[in-house]
Amino acid sequence: MIDPQALERLPKVELHCHVEGTMRAATLVELAAKNGLHLPVADPVELYEYDSLDGFLQIFWLVQSAIADRADWARVAYESVVDAAPHGLVYRETFFTPARHLAAGQDLADIVAGLDEGLAAAEAETGIRVNLVLDFDRDFGPGAALEQADRLVELKRSSSPGVERVIGVGYDSTEIGREPATFVDAFAVARHAGLRRTAHQGENSGPDAIAACVDVLGAQRIDHGISILEDPDLTARFADERIPFTVCPNSNIRIANAYPSLADHVFPAMREAGLLATLNTDDPALTDLDLGYEYRSVAEAFGYGWDDMVAIALDGVEACWLDEVDKAALRQRVRAVAVPA
Ligand code: ADE
Ligand code: ZN
Description:
Elements: H1 4-9, E1 12-14, H2 25-35, H3 53-65, H4 70-84, E2 89-96, H5 99-103, H6 108-126, E3 129-137, H7 141-157, E4 166-172, H8 184-192, E5 196-201, H9 207-215, E6 221-224, H10 232-240, E7 244-247, H11 249-254, H12 267-272, E8 276-279, H13 291-302, H14 306-319, H15 324-338
Bound molecules: adenine and zinc ion.
C-alpha cells in the first residue's frame, strides 16, 4: 500500500489540463453573473455528468463563454494553479482554447496577457511553473485555426506581453467528422515559427487518425491516444520513437465514457507496450478530479507500487517541453522525494 500523503507530495508534471476546465464552480457563477451569461441551474455542478465527449463539450463551451475579458482570464489562470498546488504539481503545460472568445470579439493579445498575469501571480505564490499551449478548436474548422496560428506568430514577433509563455499549439474539441490533415496549414505555420505541436486524438477516433497527427501535422505528442493499441505496428513504432501520450484515465471514464470503470482502462497496457504514457487530469473542475486523486486512483486500480508511481512522475518530466537543464532539475526534485536522503 502506498502512503497517500507521500503520493500527494510526489512532485508532478501535468501536460494535459485545460485552463477553462479548471474553473471553480463558484467562479463560474460569479463570472456568469458579471458577464450576463445565463446558467440553466443555480449550482453548475449539476451539469457535470456526461454521456459522451460531444455531450461534455456542450458544457465546456458554456463554461468557456463565462470568460469575457483579460481580468477573467487572469483569475481563472491564477486559480488553476493555486488549486493544484496541494496535489504536488510542480510544472504544467496548460491548454487554452480561444476560438470561441476570438469569435466573440476578444483579442488574442489580451487573452495571453491575462493568462500570463494570473499565472505569474500564482507562480510567485506557489513556486509552480506554468507554460501555455494554444489549442485550436476543431469545431471552428481549419480556417479559424490558421488565423490563430498566424496571429500567435505575429504576437511572438512583436514580443507581445506574456506570449513567451505560449510554447506550443495543439487542437482539441470534437473528433467527429474532423480529419486531422485538414488542419495541416495551421500546424505548418506553428512549426515554421519554432512552436511545439501536440494533438488531441484517439479519444473518440481510431489509430489512423493518431498516425496522421504525427505524420501529417508534425505533432510531437498525442493527447489521449487511447485507441493506439488497436494498431500493434503503430504502437511499436511510437514506443520506439518515444512519442509521449498525455493520458487522462479518469476523464476517459467521466467524459468520453470510453470504459465502464478505471480498472478497464488501457493505461497499464499502453505502458506495458513501451509507450511513454503520462498521467493527467484534463478538466479537473468539471469532472470532480485533482491530480492527487488521479495518481491515487490509478495506483489503486492497477496495483501500482511506489516505484511505478515515481516512474510515471519521471515520464511526465521526459515528455515535457522544457530544455534538458530544466528537466534535470525537475527529475532531481522527483528523486529527492522518491528516495529521501
Ligand atoms: N476540451 C476540453 N477537454 C477536452 C477533451 N477531453 N477532449 C477534447 N476537447 C476537450
Ligand atoms: Zn483534453
